[in-house]
Amino acid sequence: MNNSPFYQDIRSQYEQFLSEAAAQLNPSDTLRIDLHCHDHNSDVPDEIWGRLLRLPETWLSTEELSETLNRAGTDVVTITNHNNARSCWSLADKQKPVLSGCEFTCHFPGEPLSIHVLIYGFTPKQELELHDLRHDIYAFCAYARQHDLPTVLPHPLFFYSHGENVDPTILERFALLFERFEVLNGQRGYWQNLLTLRWVESLTPDKIDAWAAKHGINPHDFCRDPYRKNLSGGSDDHNGLFAGRCGTLLEVPNLEARLAAGESREALALDAIREGRMAPYGFVGEEEKMTTAFLDYFAQVVINMKDPGLLRMLLHKGSLKDRMICLALSNLLQELKRHKYTLTFLDTFHQALKGKKPKMLLNLGVSKEFKPILKIIKRIAKTQRTEPERFPEELRQSIPELHRFISHTFFSRVHHELARIDKDAIADMPIDEMVRMMEVPTHFRALFSSEKSNGRDMTQVDLGQMLDKLTFPALSASVVAGAAFASTQVLYSNRAFLDRLAADIGATEHPKRVLWLTDTFVDRNGVSSALRDTLTQLQKADLPIDLLVCHPSLKPQPHLQVIRPLTQFQFNQLGEQTIHVPDLLEVQKLFERGGYDRIICSTELCMGPVALYLKHAYSVPAWFYMHTDWLEFISRKTRLDQPIQDRIRRLIRAFYQQFDGMFVLNEEHRDWLTGPDMELPEERIKLTAHWAGIGSEIASLQPRPVNESPILLYVGRLSEEKGVLDLPTIWARVKLEHPAAQLWIAGSGPAEQKLREAAPEATYFGWLEQSQVPQLYQQADLLLLPSRFDTFGCVILEAMSAGLPTLAYNCKGPRSIIQHRLSGLLADDCDEMAELAVEYLASPDKQGRLRVGALSRCLDYSPQKILGQLLHDMGLETQQKAKRPIRRQPPVRLAENQT
């Protein structure tokens, strides 16, 4: 996977900074310390969910953390648990050297804002006083300064705003209150660490003085030297996985001599921190590292969690939403604890992260299909045990591989179970019967009942047996994916704040780039054709949009990202389309390293949920591009009754409401989405359009010979919802007045056989490449479009570009493009379509005027203008800005004398 120039640049900048910072210190006079790590005494989390579920932040013992820090090569041990130093005092009681440390949660009085503050070198008595003062950050920092207790602001760009919008000027107060900042946090990625660094570097004396006057704060009350900002690092490790592998180098002049003279490393380290003789060291936490930490935490939660108690959760402070979510999580975690295979997998993975081999019995008992998963876990354990310096690199490879193997196992079992079902019966089943078959009973026990229905329904499948086979891979894959989501969501929860800061300081500003997701790209349908045309225009203009397609063999191109599928499913009922299932973690990595900051999605099936996953994980805006009216499709394709259709409409509405905006191709859809059926805000609905496809060249409008047989043309998918079975009736009516009239049909689809039987004398070309179709447009007299299903009608514009008018039904898609009797013809029903065709073919003058009008109308749909407007609607601008919006005329029904 190629990294974006942005990702490569921020990585290069940050690694250069670490190298230069370390080079400024004398290696023989330095101590290594991890200034930010936790063990089991971080037992009261700040997050409300942790408190509701009675979950500590880690179960790691103090002894294990100390051993991990020593193995990582640290010279001084400190443990910074939340709001207590019990672990430090425990080590001191055992006569083990330790620098007292703590991470206090401090509050801004009268404001919904909390921050973490690291502090070192205090006594047990001072800890109690600091604990009392932490509810007023100003008193806390003043006390630390008075007693010469050095403080560090960890992850300065990540703090707790308790659901409120944060005033960006809070950073100005941070600059006045602190002189040491953590610019290397082992759980944050390159972008956030580099942005933190660039912000600290931007703190000039002039700014400090100006902000002191602005806020009425004297920085000398809190800092030895408020104009000198010092930089630290810490692992922020909670599980003992990476503790000590990133931290702070402390320079101690004449280190060896002072140690020989009896000075302790802890006292020397504290003095170096006070003096600011420090530089961060280590490696940045990329996505797999944070995912591993969350995955290990989830594993420990499942292994160690006790029932929090229903009554306690319901009576606990917090919003009803939080309590209900925690209740659901509690039930889910308790179910995980009951599933022995999933529990064994999580425990084995947790032990592997500590370098422990899987147990012998596990090796002997694991089934063949899970051998690759066990092999990956063994590899993780061996690397941690024998090559700890390679551990992060191993995780970058192993975590995605682990998720992929588990997912493959899950889908392999799904396909195996589906293969036992009568495929022919399923394939031939009408879609309305399929929907009813999938109806879940009110009582879940009915799913597993031995009493079988005489009809064809879900009880034909032994669902109990199927679920038993799918539970382990499904739960395991979900846990891995959930860890990946949680880690990313934590990192990017304040993305708007970070983006604003990057713009303000003019450094590490994220590129404004769109990832456009779609399930269909090479299929034989209008959406695929439109997206392929879009790709060509993106490449031509080098616009800040990349398409993402999941496909087994398609090759990547400029502006086209391709990932390989985990599996695929065939949906004949939805238009003979193959749906490829993407690897969620691979999509997540591509989004992160591609430098994207917003999303468009064109399809609802697999890529729709993936788009919403990325939106919530990365806190980025997402738009949906509505190509297909699925309710119209269901209405025309099925015999579902109205209550079931209403249920589907509510599901679609809930899905669409998750997006920040929607692009629609006609006014009717815009009005429907903002009306009582869907209730979307008007400001979120944007009108867009397609353009004539690539390969359709502007016609020269050479007049056709009068004596040639008139040709009626249809181009598109041959399916009943496209109205193709109206073609024989229309053609028969036309032949009564124009006996030599021909019907040419280009396309393929499920209704082809019925169409051939109804119109055997028509000329069938089959499915043609897009570059071949303009030849038909040039030869035809009139394009027929008997579809009431199309949301737009790209074929209309393609025909117009060849100077060929279209006769279509007067419905939402064609009506947006065709100006009746000016650039084409609109009919209300089959009879009127036949009458208009007869009339048109009988008048060469009308044909000439409509050809000119069609060509003129096509020019209104410029790809540059349309894509420019789309980018503008998403908050982006191109160098060639859209000069005017797309022209939209209301449907015009002119009288005969106006032609």
Automatic annotation (TrEMBL):
<dbReference type="InterPro" id="IPR016195">
    <property type="entry name" value="Pol/histidinol_Pase-like"/>
</dbReference>
<feature type="domain" description="Glycosyltransferase subfamily 4-like N-terminal">
    <location>
        <begin position="525"/>
        <end position="675"/>
    </location>
</feature>
<dbReference type="InterPro" id="IPR028098">
    <property type="entry name" value="Glyco_trans_4-like_N"/>
</dbReference>
<keyword id="KW-0808">Transferase</keyword>
<dbReference type="GO" id="GO:0016757">
    <property type="term" value="F:glycosyltransferase activity"/>
</dbReference>
<dbReference type="InterPro" id="IPR050194">
    <property type="entry name" value="Glycosyltransferase_grp1"/>
</dbReference>
<dbReference type="Pfam" id="PF00534">
    <property type="entry name" value="Glycos_transf_1"/>
</dbReference>
<feature type="region of interest" description="Disordered">
    <location>
        <begin position="879"/>
        <end position="899"/>
    </location>
</feature>
<feature type="domain" description="Glycosyl transferase family 1">
    <location>
        <begin position="707"/>
        <end position="847"/>
    </location>
</feature>
<dbReference type="InterPro" id="IPR001296">
    <property type="entry name" value="Glyco_trans_1"/>
</dbReference>
<protein>
    <submittedName>
        <fullName>Glycosyltransferase involved in cell wall bisynthesis</fullName>
    </submittedName>
</protein>
<dbReference type="Pfam" id="PF13439">
    <property type="entry name" value="Glyco_transf_4"/>
</dbReference>
